Amino acid sequence: MKAILRVVEYDFTNFFRYRWFIVGLITMNLADLFISAIVFTQMTNIVNYFRFFAPGLAVVGLFASAFMIGREINMEVRREIHHYLLSLPMTRTQLAIGRVLAGGLRGMLYMTPLLMTNFIVLRFPNPSQLLLILLTLLLLAIGISGVSISIAVSTTSFEKFVTARGVVYYMFFFCSSVFYPLSIIQVLATRGLGPLVTFAQINPLTNGSDLIRSFLLDSPEYAFSPVMILDVAIFSLIFASLAIFAYSRILQRH
Amino acid sequence: MFIQYKFLLIMRGIWFVAQVALFGLVVNRMVQEAATEVGISYFQYYVAGVTIITLYSTAMFIGYDIFEEAEHGVFEYLLTLPVSRRELVLGRSIGGGLRSFIYVGPLLVVVLLILGVSNPLYLLVALAAMFLFAFGVSGMSITLAVAMKSGDKYDILIGVLDALIVRLSTTMYPTVYMERALPAYATIANFNPLTYAADLFRWGTGVEGTLQFSPLTGVLGLFIFFFAFTFIGVVFYERRLEGGSWQ
Q1: How many domains does chain A divide into?
Q2: What is the residue range of A20's domain?
Q3: Considering only CB atoms, which chain B residues are within 8 Å of A196?
Q4: Which of A170, A243, B103, B117 is the most buried (most CB within 10 A)?
Q5: Contacts for A19 with CB less than 8 Å, ≥ 6 apart
Q6: Which tens digit of pLDDT belongs to each residue from A118-133?
Q7: Interchain CB distance below 8 Å, B31 and A175
């Protein structure tokens, strides 16, 4: 346990070294909320888009910051820093668990101000709702960190990592209820894109953002269901395990 | 060199499809009333916009090449070639623009099949303007990469720039709604090269019958953008190329 905590500490120190990257991410998130969301609010009367999008933004921020760990690991692999990490007095599994956890926790830390913005512009949840929101988002962040690490150790160049990151971002974002209600996505089924609708329904980003909406929007359209947490937990378990396996096995081949 | 990135090209293609087939279709449904109000099909409007976003992001990619070359020591080899620094950067800028056009070519054919062409002459003017745009973006990418000399900082800056330059343009929504949201957004969009390229492309394909500016103004705006960044790129490249300190 101590070894894992050391790895988490190492990654947190690195996180604050990338403060400009965080500034960049915040700028992108704020541009989404205060430019795109405001313009789309003028264009649609299906929902109050600004209020609808605010919870989605917290999930977008969480996704992008939890994904940052992959960027660092990819850089370590390319610059062969991982040899140093592998020489540390801890098992490969401890190292891998520490990195997946650190990625998730960093995502939570970054997302906190965005979630607070939600509480301010929408409403404050009660303590049990807050606990459920934080638990679900932590599971989501660990799963995303797992996806990111799995990609990072499987790509040998920065371009490939950047491109794969872009594709994963857009698949998870666009095929989810982060940007638009699930009821509108369902129209894709009539155009022969049924599998995408299914993906959107099981997408952890959909469940994460709809869970926040269910507590903060007071709308019957977004009712809380325990399946939301189950969905995110399964995603987290699969990708955290995959990342731990990939990190501790593939890394030794480089 | 670009063709070597088969993996990248395939992934970018998937990204384009995701933008069109997911975001475009779904948001089209969400903003149907608004699109009817301004007399456009949002799906067509967005498809044209995302073509310009793809052209922009592909042309920006040359910056990553520069860092890859610096990391692998290819830069030193390039400096030994019997060409001047000026020729080198001009060649790279034009090459960056051309290769992004080659990459967008097949997507452009698909887009033209979706949008149709109302006037071939207008389309030719629009394509010429898009060439200028691609060369300009490529020059901007080289300028930023050489000015930063750090792959990390460049990646961050590109992300921020992408967030602002794309959202404060007419690639995703018409100016009239930006004006309603905040007049300052529309003002900035009016000076954005992505706005000129996207609107000229829509005009060329007939998605938009009339432009808020004359086609000549649009082409002139893109020419100034191309000229400025290509030549700033030359100056930066010449001054900062040597001396190492690449991160």
Answers
A1: 1
A2: 2-253
A3: 21-22
A4: A243
A5: none
A6: 999 889 999 999 999 9
A7: no
